[in-house]
Each structure stands twice: as structure tokens, then as C-alpha cells.
């Protein structure tokens, strides 16, 4: 039997050698179906690395990166940054906002409302993209940001300001996720690093936001409104740019699914549990030591109920949810994913604490004069960055 197989293989090899060959991907390749031909592929005709792939792997086609694609990349990077601008200016203006709106307490809920809206919307942003398309969801997110900013800029009551920050937070969640995802698609793989640098570059003009706040608010408590108006002008330009330049591919991960089936895959119970629990927990943290004593029934009840709901959410996601908000498969056999989540969580704690407490430090501890504040701000920031870099390098 072995001899028969060897003879057959040898005969097949001899027969293939006698066939005429043609080069695949060649313009002169024959098309006669009656010819018995052998294909020969040349490496020159094959883009092995798929440098202009639509995705980061080799599973998709190519990106036509022209002028419109470059402009779309610029506006998507701006959308990511624009989602955060209103949070910067409001977080740096809480003292002036409290004075203008005559708030005795509760001003810290303005940035908190924005952050909660982001947390509530982020898990469902992908489903919204599948249902309505990335272009329309990006435009919707930009519109929500602008509407929320207008409400905040024209607010003369705490309720209107709170609604404005919440609406802008919904848009910010969509804008941040859609901006990064869209940027990764419109830019070829070989330019991916430059596109990420572009995102960082758009943040640079807003880094000294505390200086801006002090300049237009010092001596005039109403001047804080310039922050929302500047954010509105910026996001308005970005939204118009996306309208005329961003036309993404129509492929989606939900291709072949009906809208009803997509909606059924949304974990509404998990979303309700997580947002309700987190909100009640934050109510306890915001009230303790300010409006109510830490040992009061109000603080203890909200604290325990919030923690209990968060615990129920964890049990629901890990045991009962058919399509959980955080799939367990993300962490199986991928240690780096868990580490990335932990690092992002720790970095977020630092970011939002600085966002809320850094302005209070400058207005309460130091004399609120821009020329004196900026050097302190730069020295503290650079010292923290150098220390963090030193720790990171030493750990390597």
C-alpha cells in the first residue's frame, strides 16, 4: 500500500510539473476555463503585512486614505477631546459657579453627574452603533455634547446645570468611544501611531484650563460661563466637520442580526443595577461629612444600599446574565486584560480627584492669581510625571 501511495504522489508531481503555469494577480493571466493551469503567486504582488488594512489584523480590506479621510481623522480626534472639555472647565469653576448660582452645597454633583452619565452610556455605545451606524451615532453624540453645554452655559439654577452636565456626559461617552474606534478605521495601520499622537495633541491647548478659568473669572463670578461657550465653539466646529467628512464603512459586528435581536442582547438589568448602585453609593460619599454626619442613618443607609446593589450586579453579571456587560471571556487566559482594567481604574481615580480637588487647592490654599498659580501647577505636574516615570522604569 505504501508503494502505491508513493507512486501516485510521484505521478501527480510529474503531472503538475508538465502543466503550463501563470502568475496570479498578473494583468495577463489567462482566463480560458479549458486550460489546465497551475497557479504561481509572487510575493511582489502580495501585501503580506496588509499595511493599509481597515482593522489592526489581516481580516479586512484596505483604507483609501485621502484628503477626506485625513480630515475625518482630525475631526474624530477632536471629538474625543471635545467630549472632555466641558468637564475640565466646570471642574475648575465650581467655586465661581456656586457663587453665581448661590449654591450653599452640592456643586460637586455637576462633574459627578457628567461622569455618571458617561458610565451609564459607555456599555451600550457599541449596541447603538450596531443599531444606527457609526456615522449617525457620532453625530448624535456630538449633538448631545453641544446641547448639554448650552444648558450649562445658560443655567441660572442648579437643576438646569445638572441636566446640562448629564446630557453632555451621554454625548461624551459616545464621542470618546466612537472617536477612538472611528479613528482606528479611517487611518491606515502604518499611520496608527501618528493618529494616537494626534489625539494627545488636541488635548494640549486645554491643559492650562485652570489658568483660563482664573483669567476670565477672577474678579467676576459670571466669567465662568466663558468655559462652556468656548467648549461649545470647539464642539460645534468638530460636529460640522464630522457631518461632512466622516462616512465610515457600513460593516458591523451585528451584520445579519435584526434590530429586535440586537436589543434582546442588551443587558438592561445589569445596566440598571450598576447605575442605581453606583449613584446611591456616590450620594453617600457626597453627603458624608458635608450635609449629613457620617454616622447618620441617611449616609449609612445609602452607603449600604449602594454597596449591596453593586454586589447584586456582580452576581448577576457572573451567574445569570446571558449577555453580560463585561463578558468573562475577556479575562480568560489573558492576564494583560485584567491588568489594563486595574491600571485604567487607578488612573481614573487620580484623574477625577485632580479634576475636582486641584482647583479647590489653588483657590483655597494659594492666592488665586493666574501668574502665581501657573508655575505651581507646572512644577507639581512635572514632579508627579517624573516620579511616575521613574517608578515605571525601575519596575521594568
Characterise the protein shown here:
It holds the Pfam family TRI12. Residues 1-29 are annotated as: Disordered. The chain crosses the membrane at residues 69-89, 109-129, 136-155, 161-184, 196-214, 226-247, 268-289, 295-316, 336-358. The protein has helices at residues 2-18, 67-91, 94-101, 109-132, 134-153, 158-186, 192-203, 209-217, 226-245, 259-264, 268-287, 297-320, 335-364, 370-395, and strands at residues 21-23, 38-40. It has 396 residues and is an all-alpha fold. Among the domains are: 67-250, Growth Hormone, Chain: A; 267-326. A two-stranded parallel sheet has the order 1-2. Helix 2 packs antiparallel against helix 9 (226-245). The radius of gyration is 28 Å and the shape is globular.
Provide the fold topology.
Blueprint: H1 2-18, E1 21-23, E2 38-40, H2 67-91, H3 94-101, H4 109-132, H5 134-153, H6 158-186, H7 192-203, H8 209-217, H9 226-245, H10 259-264, H11 268-287, H12 297-320, H13 335-364, H14 370-395
Parallel strand pairs: 1-2
Helix pairs in contact: 2-6, 2-7, 2-9, 4-5, 4-6, 4-11, 5-6, 5-9, 8-14, 11-12
How would you describe this structure in keywords?
single chain, 396 residues, mainly alpha, 68% helix
Give a concise summary.
The chain has helices spanning 2-18, 67-91, 94-101, 109-132, 134-153, 158-186, 192-203, 209-217, 226-245, 259-264, 268-287, 297-320, 335-364, 370-395, and strands at residues 21-23, 38-40. The protein has 396 residues and is mainly α. Among the domains are: 67-250, MFS general substrate transporter like domains (Growth Hormone, Chain: A); 267-326.
